[in-house]
Automatic annotation (TrEMBL):
Keywords: Acyltransferase, Cytoplasm, Iron, Metal-binding, Transferase, tRNA processing. It is found in: Cytoplasm. This is tRNA N6-adenosine threonylcarbamoyltransferase. InterPro entries: ATPase_NBD, Gcp-like_dom, KAE1/TsaD, TsaD. GO terms for biological process: tRNA threonylcarbamoyladenosine modification. Its EC number is 2.3.1.234. It catalyses: L-threonylcarbamoyladenylate + adenosine(37) in tRNA = N(6)-L-threonylcarbamoyladenosine(37) in tRNA + AMP + H(+). Its main location: cytoplasm. Binds 1 Fe(2+) ion per subunit.
Length: 341
């Protein structure tokens, strides 16, 4: 089957065509960095308007690149949440209109499910169940991915997400926006041992993550004016790595049966984080899987792929399906602890 995927939940507008045989026929993406840079972060209203301007030309360009028409597509998948609701609605309403006009089924995709299943687009050998570290701008979770739509959340953050910590650190250090890649570049030039920074919840018996204290420590280190931005960035990144590894190690111990260790989400594009997780997997004799960098940060191929996985199971949605600003992957775990969803 051929699936058209649409993504518009944050500050990337994207359209892609992906087949159930894992062929990415076309993918188009328009970032909005320039529009948001003056504000040092994503402004929801600016994002929604930019999605309106960018989306239809991107869909047309994707179809053109693939040499297809809408009639050739088997289903239309769009992010229906979680995310900035204005942007989500732009993508979802566009998908509904196309589905209605072309008489195609609609698939409402959870953006987090897009991140969670994309490792299987990149790696055909990756089977359920796998242990997933989902690290992105709004989330930091450990999940046992048991199947499509079947997620057991083992841990989440009690305050900031990992990507949020990167973005705030970049802002504090004046490294620019978007923050993750800027911090990674600066960290490569610094000494990770020069500044002593905390590792919140390291070794804790509870499973969760915390990054707010680390961010405050970055602020104090900056104000002390004793170290370069590069050294602070390197210290920060190493602290994040230590926390991610410690928490993931704990999850490996309590989640026997996982066939692989997998990382996904925008922060999974970070080289040293990928390398540390790969080492951790090797130490536990687990296969390691991570999508290529461009499939880690937001894109539409991941939404098309999640759509393909759902379509194969007959999971389509009615045209009146609602956009959801919040949409936990594991609603049961979310009842127990709502943070980080
Ligand atoms: P969510 O998926 O939780 O809704 P989002 O869609 O905004 O959030 P993603 O696009 O998945 O987030 O990821 C963006 C985040 O990834 C940003 O916080 C960004 O700073 C971070 N990021 C991107 N590249 C890197 C990198 N190389 N190193 C560290 N962080 C990175
Ligand atoms: Mg973005
Ligand atoms: Fe995302």
């Amino acid at each position: 089957a051929i699936i058209l995927g649409i993504e518009s939940s944050c500050d990337e507008t994207a359209a892609a065509l992906v087949t159930s045989e894992r062929h990415i026929l076309a993918h188009k993406l328009a970032g909005q960095e320039e529009a948001h840079r003056p504000f040092g972060g994503v402004v929801p209203e600016i994002a929604a308007r930019a999605h309106v301007d960018a989306l239809e030309p991107l869909i047309a360009a994707a179809l053109d690149e693939a040499g297809l028409e809408l009639a050739d597509v088997d289903a239309i998948a769009a992010t229906a949440g979680p995310g900035l609701i204005g942007g989500v609605m732009v993508g979802l309403v566009t998908a509904k209109a196309l589905a209605l006009a072309a008489g195609k089924p609609l698939i409402a995709v959870n953006h987090l499910e897009g991140h969670a299943l994309t490792p299987r687009l990149a790696d055909p050998a990756l089977c359920f169940p796998y242990l997933l570290l989902l690290v992105s701008g709004g989330h930091c979770q450990l999940l046992l991915v048991e199947g499509v739509g079947r997620y057991k959340r083992l841990a989440t953050t009690i305050d900031d997400a990992a990507g949020e910590a990167f973005d705030k650190t970049a802002k504090l250090l004046g490294l620019g926006f978007p923050g993750g890649p800027a911090v990674e570049r600066a960290a490569a030039l610094g000494d990770p041992k020069a500044v002593k920074l905390p590792r919140p919840l390291l070794g804790s018996a509870e499973p969760h993550f915390s990054f707010a204290g680390l961010k405050s420590a970055v602020l104090r280190a900056r104000d002390a004016q004793t170290h370069s931005a590069e050294d602070i960035a390197a210290g920060f990144q190493q602290a994040v790595i230590d926390c991610l590894i410690d928490r993931t190690k704990r999850a490996i111990a309590v989640a026997p049966g996982a066939t692989a260790l997998v990382v996904a989400g925008g922060v999974a594009a970070n080289g040293p984080i990928r390398a540390a997780l790969q080492q951790l997997a090797a130490a536990h004799d687990l296969p390691f899987s991570a999508p290529p960098l461009w499939l880690c940060t937001d894109n539409a191929a991941m939404i098309a792929w999640a759509g393909a996985e759902r379509f194969a199971l007959g999971l389509t949605d009615p045209l009146d399906v609602a956009a959801r600003p919040r949409w936990p992957l594991d609603p049961e775990a979310d009842k127990v602890r709502g943070a980080g969803v």
